[in-house]
Design goal:
The complex is a heterodimer. Chain A is mainly alpha-helical. Chain A is 62% helix and 0% strand. The longest helix of chain A has 32 residues, at 71-102. Chain B is built from 10 helices and 2 strands. Chain B has helices spanning 4-21, 27-53, 77-97, 108-124, 128-146, 152-183, 188-195, 203-220, 231-236, 238-244, and strands at 58-61, 72-75. Classes of the chains: A mainly alpha, B mainly alpha. The interface between A and B is medium-sized, with 36 and 28 residues.
Chain lengths: 116, 247
């Protein structure tokens, strides 16, 4: 499971960075989204991967991290998702308005040719 | 517990919300409320400075949670000084904007107050993740101020600025998560205590996270990319950038 997690993280991050460096605004937007996903997954992993353990304490089991998943990173991820989602939405609005105002989808909004 | 500390965050939040409710038609009322709130924040920060001057560190526990579980605000001499500086710059900037530059931006005064809220919160917080949240509050207001009018070049530069800051925020979260994974806490006082006790195997990760934080603060303070900053974008929000440079 750790290997799968690490691979997914690596793929998300590398595709995110690659898209971020592309000259089209839409690609950059997707890149930021993927990078934000990767970061969220990374925060989640930093609470250690504990399969089958609940994050909420019940009366029957002792309240230790051996029997429970760490709830704090999950709360952090929730906040991070909301913030990155809002920022991505803002970036999308800027990209659309920039494309209309400048008649170009290029990040520098000039006439240079976009690769296919 | 001293309740004055949290007022430095709540006051700009309340007046910013009031300014939104007030609508954008009546510019005189907007200016008056903005100036009044800035002046009140300055008075409050002087009070906080006097409080902190005794050398006493007052901790405000939000929601009265235990310090290790909840988020706390800490007032010491440095944070009181920074809040004072922010309030002073905020008042002077608001006064300057009343000369007519506020008419170019919709919701200028509300955004101004929200930005002050983010700045004060960032200086007062004692929690690394909370610092991130307040950073985003001040950044999203600065995006609004930067993009007002939505001129062609503004949109272009704005896209660069927002993308750059979003990547900076991602790096911030990576550093915060690494520190949590290594040290098991995000409270700054606890972090300082636990970093001293890291083993040799953990030390490189903690160092990497610390240096990543340095990069992030350089990005947010417009220090990075070196000499690559866009002067036209900076010029338009010179006060905001100046305020951010306090970090």
């Amino acid at each position: 499971m750790s290997l799968l997690f690490a691979l997914a993280l690596g793929v998300l991050t590398s595709t995110g960075v690659w898209l971020l460096l592309r000259p089209r605004t839409f690609d950059v937007l997707l890149g930021v989204t993927l990078l934000a996903y990767a970061v969220n997954v990374y925060i989640f992993a930093m609470g250690r991967l504990t399969p089958g353990a609940p994050p909420i304490i019940s009366k029957d089991t002792a309240a230790t991290l051996l029997t429970h998943a760490d709830p704090l990173p999950q709360a952090l991820v929730l906040t991070a998702i909301v913030i990155s989602f809002a920022m991505t939405a803002l970036l999308a609005v800027i990209a659309i308005r920039s494309a209309h105002a400048n008649n170009s989808e290029h990040v520098d909004a000039d006439d240079s040719e976009l690769p296919r | 517990m001293n309740h004055w500390v949290v007022l430095a965050v709540v006051l700009p939040l309340l007046s910013g919300s009031l300014l939104i409710l007030l609508g954008e038609r009546n510019i005189v009322w907007q200016r008056a409320l903005n100036l009044l709130s800035c002046a009140a924040l300055l008075a409050l920060s002087v009070h906080l400075l006097i409080l902190a001057d005794s050398g006493e560190i007052s901790v405000y526990l939000l929601g009265n949670w235990l310090p290790n579980i909840g988020i706390s605000l800490v007032l010491d001499r440095l944070s009181a000084l920074m809040v004072g500086l922010t309030a002073l710059l905020g008042l002077v900037g608001a006064l300057f904007s009343c000369g007519g530059s506020d008419l170019r931006a919709r919701w200028f005064h509300a955004l101004w107050q929200f930005q002050l809220m983010g700045l004060c919160g960032a200086f007062l917080t004692a929690d690394l993740f909370n610092l991130f949240v307040f950073f985003e509050v001040l950044l999203i207001s600065s995006y609004g101020l930067l993009l007002h009018g939505a001129h062609k070049t503004q949109l272009k530069r704005g896209f660069h600025y927002v993308t750059f800051n979003l990547v900076g925020s991602c790096l911030f979260l990576i550093a915060v998560a690494t520190l949590y994974g290594m040290l098991g806490t995000l409270s700054m006082a606890d972090l300082a205590y636990r970093i001293a006790g890291t083993t040799d195997a953990d030390a490189p990760f903690v160092k990497a996270a610390g240096l990543l934080l340095l990069v992030v603060f350089a990005i947010k303070a417009a220090l990075l990319p070196l000499m690559g900053n866009d002067p036209t974008a900076v010029e338009r929000v010179f006060l905001i950038i100046a305020a951010q440079k306090e970090y």
